[in-house]
Every structure is written in structure tokens, then in C-alpha cells.
UniProtKB/TrEMBL annotation:
The keyword Flavoprotein does not apply. PROSITE patterns: CADHERIN_1, CADHERIN_2. It comes from Muntiacus muntjak. It is found in: Cell membrane. It is a single-pass type I membrane protein. GO terms for molecular function: calcium ion binding. InterPro entries: Cadherin-like_dom, Cadherin-like_sf, Cadherin_CS, Cadherin_N, Protocadherin/Cadherin-CA. Pfam families: Cadherin, Cadherin_2. This is Cadherin domain-containing protein. Residues 34-133, 157-242, 243-349, 350-452 form the Cadherin domain. GO terms for cellular component: plasma membrane.
Amino acid sequence: MSATQRSGLGNGRLLLSLLLLAAWESGSGQVHYSVPEEAKHGTFVGRIAQDLGLELAELVPRLFRVASKGRGDLLEVNLQNGILFVNSRIDREELCGRSVECSIHLEVIVDRPLQVFHVEVEVKDINDNPPVFSLREQKLLIYESKQPDSRFPLEGASDADIGENAQLTYRLSKNEYFSLELPINSKPTKKLSLTLKKSLDREKTPEFNLLLTAADGGKPELTGTVQLFIRVLDINDNDPEFEQSEYKVRLMENTAKETLVIQLNATDQDEGVNGEVTYSLMSIKPNGKSLFTLDENNGEVKVNGTLDYEENKFYEIEVQATDKGNPPMAGHCTVWVEILDANDNAPEITVTSLSLPVREDTQPSTVIALISVSDRDSGDNGQVICFLTSNVPFKIVSTFKNYYSLVLDGSLDRESVSVYKLMVTARDGGSPSLSATASVSVEVADVNDNAPA
């Protein structure tokens, strides 16, 4: 063996070692940072080059780059000092909604040799959203014959923040007739309600205008208000009553339009028109007004739009039953609709960082390309396996959750095969399963390995 051949073999072994190290590092996810949402442009996040063990001088020559799937250019790296910084506005609520955990996953890639690192940047919540009531004014009709300790449901506020920043407390403007009964944290379905403290007299006080204030747990706190208009009625009557105050229903996403969700029934102990009940929708949260209909005469709730698990998993429907008395009286119930996932999203495949063409003397286990897969479904429907065309000198190696490397698994001979047409297939665990494919063309580059004939 010549010195040149021994040198080439040594270099090949060195390259193999470096590529194996890169594959190990790509699965480690060892670097974590955190940054508050709404941080200003240029805010320091971390010394990413130093923390990844990279020298500043090698960032540009090794084509240092950062990819953040679906996250745009929220974060950038200064290649002069290796610092990760905030590049554009980060809104945690826009990024992750009400999810407790929120992070930006960065894929850091360098060449020569090819290495990939996974970096997680946790986005911390700040108290930037005040409590919001869906209505400017809530109207209540209360008979003067109502006894002290009677309770009347109120619609509470919502806060787009999380944690303490979304923990709401309520206070009512000073008055001698009404107090608040607050929700209990251990029972999230416990409704905010108004409690009557002393008997009413319509002839003395026919109406009340009270101010309800919601304050969050941030420091400093943010508040929202709603006006409560209470009309005291003069006629002693009975409220319509539902069989339950709360109902829970489960529906598969993509359930057909006009499908019956539930048939509600409220009864009124009064006779004649005072006991005849009609139904109306008070609210559908979040933003589901067009997705359900309610028959005002028979209380049937039906699907009226497309239910998408990936868009929203729960709906809260507030229904009011009103009798035909003069003045009318009302009862209320809540229907909780849980949307169940169907396998309606095929996996998606992304192939990046192709190292082409591949020399025919490339050593086995060399990384040729990086592959990532994703599926918007949940559970088994979102679990994806990835595999490659059979009978080719390549294989797919898992490096991180839903991340793979396409590596050489045998020897190449350009004189035998100059181009490989590979097919990458991703299949989810749904029943029936859905799959997606991506083609990768690998060209084999010639080396001088044949003597003249």
C-alpha cells in the first residue's frame, strides 16, 4: 500500500469518526436557553457557538447555519461573536397558545465535517395580556321574590397568558345586595356567580348597575371590567330547569354536518305559556359560533361546520332556556364538547443538507443528508416511522425524535451505478395509516480507481 493510499485510509477513518460524533451530538439535544416573550430586538439569548464547542473562527468557513422549522427568523446568530439573539418579535400566545410548555427548536448545522446540533429555547410568559370579558355588559333578570343566598351565573373573563399571569380574581363594586361566589381552583368547571345577600324590593330599587372587575396574578396586575345590569322583576315565577347543569359530549373531528351532538331538555313548573320553553345559544368558546346550531324549539344541538382536532380540542357551549311568560325567566346549562383526533393528516418529509455528489470511495456510515418528519395528528396517528428503498447501499439512522440521517451503508462503484434514485417513505401509526414519500437522487462521483486497459 502506498503512502498516499495509507493517508487516504487514515483520512477516511478520521472522517468516519467525526461523522459518528456528529450523529451522536445531533441526538443529544444538550443545549437549552430561555428568553422572555416580547424581548427587544438584539436581546441576548446565549453564547451558542461556545456552548456547542465551536470556535468563532470556524463558523463562517464551516457554513454555520440555524434552521427553525415554521418559526421564521425569530432568533438569529451573530457569526462574529457566536451569540444567539432575538431577531424579531416573539409572542408566546401566538406561538404556543395556552400550552404550558413553549419552546423554539433550533437545528444548528455546520459542514466540514457535517454536524448537527439541537437547541431548545424556552419562551417565558410575561404578563402582557389583561383579562377580557366577551361582552361589555351582562344583563340579569331577577325576581324580587328570590330568597337570600340565591345564585345567578356570570360569564367570567379569560386571559391569554399562562400560570400566575392567568390566575384571575374578581371583585364587585360596593353594594348591600349582592356578593360574588368565586370559582374554586380544584374544580375548574365551578362557575362564577352572583349571590343575593338580602331580599329585594322592586318598588324601592327596580334595577342595579354594578361593575365586575377581573384581575390577573401578574406583577403588576392587569385588569378587565364588565358592567352588570340587573333588572328586578315584579312577578313571582319559576325558572326553566335543565336536567343537568353541565353535559359532556365527545365527537370525532370531521363529523358530518347536521350530526346530532345532544338534545337538551329544560322544564318549567309553571302552566300555560309560562311553562313553554325555547332555547338559545348564549356563547360558544373559543370562536365556535358557526360550528354548532341549536333548535330553539326542541333543544337539539347539531354540527354546523368542520370540526378540526388540530385547530381546537374543546368547545364550551352556553345554552339558555327561556319561558314565554311576561316577563320571561331563564335557566342555563353548559355543554362541554371534546373533539377526538382522526388520522386525517399525512406525515410530512423534509430533506436538507444534501452532501452531493458522493465520491465512489466514500466510507460506509458517512452522512449523506438530513431528514426530518412530522405529523399534525396526535397519539398513534401522529407517531411516524421512516424507511428507505430496499436493496440500495444506503440506510436511515434515527438521530433524534423525528430526525434521521441518510448514511452510506455499503461500498459505491460509479462504473456499476452512477446515480441512485432513493425513495424515503414516512408512515404514521393510524388505522388505516397515512404515508408520504420524498425522492432523493444521489449521484456517485468518479475517482481514479481503474488502470488504463
